[in-house]
């Protein structure tokens, strides 16, 4: 072995282990880096765990709440307020009233249903404010809500009593006390979104019942189809909802069995069941509750005996579809209904006997667009501009179909947390089947809530 | 005229900074004794306050005075070879809210150098941000913190407690009232965020019903009900929306701005809670009897605010906290506000809670 060879072997003997060791070090998992020691941010010296009031006893929220509102307004309807065209002598006159009837307040009262001397109305009538064509101040509604939430039990009892001036009779000047709602709601299962209500309650049909009070409705007057969907009745209802969290969505079902349907009639209060057969109604809904977009869609149906008939074979049937979309302060509400009442037998109303109960058909709907601007200008909390388009095509069997449309525009101001001021203009157009009549309306409403 | 004054107020420290730091070699030549008479030691400044404008002028002047003294005091310390003090003053200067970027640009490397020469670790990246003074740790020294204006140039003032009782609040009583203090005529220290704050949804209620947290706190919303919940708020600028989440899931939301945050559930219209976000470290929440204690308050003048769910407006009053603290304060909140008749859904549309959906 030469000196050079010995040097190579020696180098290899020295370097190989070093090289292998270095490779082994490179392949071995590196030790975890030293965790930097950071100065912990000190906790606030005044940290609080929060406060929850007791459920019972001193300092507990009252299980009973009393709320309500007073709705006063000023309205002016064109003409004589009836929408009867001069010289229109068709009978029965109230058929015309139903289809024209421009509302003047949040209850949907028309300015007048007075047909003039020598003619009588009976049948299917809207309520009347009785002001005719005279510009008038109106006391529309005094409404009181009582809500009792049972401590420690899944039970809530609610009642809404409305004092309605001029409600009695066609053009009465009395005040009627109406128990609009009185029900108990039980949520029997903590694990399910299921609620059972028994008593007198709002309709489950469509969406307009959700804001069918002056202190919650965007505008003043109800839609042209509100008379077919917003009546209260007595019975039982069940609400069930299931959520689809990944889709920010929910499906809901609301069904009711009641003494009568959801029509609003001045002559036929819906409390009594004339046939003993309940009216079934329901709505199936889909909700999308995305962060910037809220959309709610639904289809509704109602079927059962007519409200004004002792004969259960005289039926009413209503289908409907609705949509609500809210995005960036813009609200779009739309609803469509298809109403069919079969012919009935002679009936008796609060105005007496009526020899005929014609079949009735109505198809109509509305689209409402509203823009709400939240403000903090002194007492002004919110300003809302709104516009609605209504259209209704309706006829009593054997009579001429009448098509009307209505354009409604208005402004709403929310002041403090207790006052709402609204102004609204309704332009009513007779599209087909009836002579044009002056029946536009200017109306306003001042609502005090407590 | 007002604009000119404002520009003058904000630009003169910059001129001073430029004059102080531009010829670096000349620093060493400035004898410390020259500072007497021009480097102020005392705050508040003896400026008369008779009007709101006077108060604003005084506050602005004191802020600039503070900036100048930290700037110049740091340089004097540097000149004297006291790098720890120099670093402390300049680091404090860099935390002043609204500091002129030019001053920050000049001082930032010097502060790091001073800290390095002092043998300490440089300030962290987080601390590099210009901030209002931080809340001191409980019982700890306010070492690296900007001293309150009143104590510039003095030994740190010991903090005291302010305690008392809230009464009123209507039928709900005073429990849950939130009391907080902010400095009158000066910057209030920025509070440290609280940790581990949780609001649970249990039996279709927010628990706690009212929670007070300092700005920057991350609150966890935890669903303990066997049904889905949502949490949202329309209270700007703290509005948020959690989406739907099931039992056991938690959503976190950081509250970055001060204000009253009404917390609601888009599914259950009966659920309502409140988070009070405060931008001061001096706050407390009254217990069921109305008793409260705010700890760690440096003596001085404060604006005190009392918020209660049942009051339509917060109660506000001035308060002078003496070195001995304050006990037995008697505060009153009105009970003139009732729970809302309607609560909005997350699009802002009111809901009738008796309907239940």
Characteristics of this structure?
heterodimer, A: 450 residues, mainly beta, Porin, 16-stranded antiparallel β-barrel, two-stranded antiparallel ribbon, 2 helices, 18 strands, globular, B: 357 residues, alpha+beta, Immunoglobulin-like, four-stranded antiparallel sheet, four-stranded mixed sheet, 5 helices, disordered N terminus
Strand order of the largest sheet of chain A: 1-2-3-4-5-6-7-8-9-10-11-14-15-16-17-18
What is the averaged pLDDT score of chain B?
Answer: 78
Outline the biggest β-sheet of chain A.
Answer: 16 strands, antiparallel, barrel
- The CATH homologous superfamily name of the largest domain in chain B equals Cupredoxins -  blue copper proteins
Compute the separation of the termini of chain B in Å.
58 Å
Here the CATH topology of the largest domain in chain B equals Immunoglobulin-like
Q: Pairing-aware structural class of the strands and helices of chain B?
A: alpha+beta
Description:
The complex is a heterodimer of chains A (450) and B (357). Chain A has 450 residues and is mainly β. Chain A has a single domain (64-421), classed as Porin (Beta Barrel). In chain A, 7% of the residues lie in helices and 46% in strands. Chain A is built from 2 helices and 18 strands. Chain A has helices spanning 3-27, 93-100; strands spanning 64-77, 136-149, 155-165, 175-186, 193-201, 233-244, 249-258, 279-289, 294-305, 315-327, 330-341, 347-349, 352-354, 360-377, 380-396, 402-415, 419-432, 441-449. In chain A, the strands form 2 sheets. A 16-stranded antiparallel β-barrel of chain A has the order 1-2-3-4-5-6-7-8-9-10-11-14-15-16-17-18. In chain A, strands 12-13 form a two-stranded antiparallel ribbon. Residues 7-40 of chain A have low confidence and may be disordered. With 357 residues, chain B is of the alpha+beta class. Chain B has 2 domains: 2-131, no CATH class; 160-352, Cupredoxins -  blue copper proteins (Immunoglobulin-like), CATH 2.60.40.420. Helix content of chain B is 23%, strand content 29%. Chain B contains 5 helices and 18 strands. Chain B has helices at 2-21, 24-27, 52-79, 83-94, 101-117, and strands at residues 160-168, 178-183, 197-201, 206-207, 210-214, 217-223, 229-233, 240-245, 250-255, 259-264, 272-278, 283-285, 291-297, 300-307, 315-321, 326-333, 342-344, 350-352. In chain B, the strands form 6 sheets. Chain B has a 4-stranded antiparallel β-sheet with strand order 12-2-14-15, with no helix packed on it. In chain B, a hairpin with a 4-residue loop joins strand 3 and strand 4 (206-207). In chain B, helix 1 (2-21) packs parallel to helix 3, helix 3 (52-79) runs antiparallel to helix 4 and helix 4 packs antiparallel against helix 5. Chain B starts with a helix and ends in a 5-residue tail after the last strand. At the A-B interface, strand 2 and strand 6 of A face strand 5, strand 8, strand 12, strand 13 and strand 18 of B.
